[in-house]
Design brief:
One of its GO terms (molecular function) is metal ion binding. Belongs to the RBT5 family. It comes from Melampsora medusae f. sp. deltoidis. This is CFEM domain-containing protein. It is a lipid-anchor; GPI-anchor. It is a single chain. This protein is mostly helical. It has one domain. It is built from five helices and no strands. Helix 2 packs antiparallel against helix 4. It is globular. 15% of the residues are buried.
């Protein structure tokens, strides 16, 4: 993660307040989505959901993280959240 002086929970709060609705996304997947969005793998702005939804590298790395971090049920829920969000 880039160091910006904010904890991950503070960043989650900022994302929620700024319009990125993480409701319905399993906790294990939230970590993956936020880690990918806050990292250096994407050229998208943090809150540019349209860009993230079209960024193949971001999507691949997020999906890989979700597959290794979540149960099958949570991974399916994450996929449904992504389809709804994008």
């Amino acid at each position: 993660f880039p160091t910006s002086g904010h904890s991950l929970s503070e960043k989650r709060g900022l994302l929620s307040l700024s319009g990125l609705n993480l409701k319905g996304l399993p906790s294990c997947a939230k970590v993956c989505v936020l880690k990918s969005a806050l990292g250096t793998i994407t050229n998208c702005g943090l809150l540019d959901i349209e860009c993230h939804c079209q960024d193949d590298k971001y999507l691949r790395l997020s999906a890989r993280c979700i597959i290794t971090s979540c149960s099958v049920d949570d991974a399916v829920d994450a996929e449904m959240w992504a389809h709804h969000t994008c």
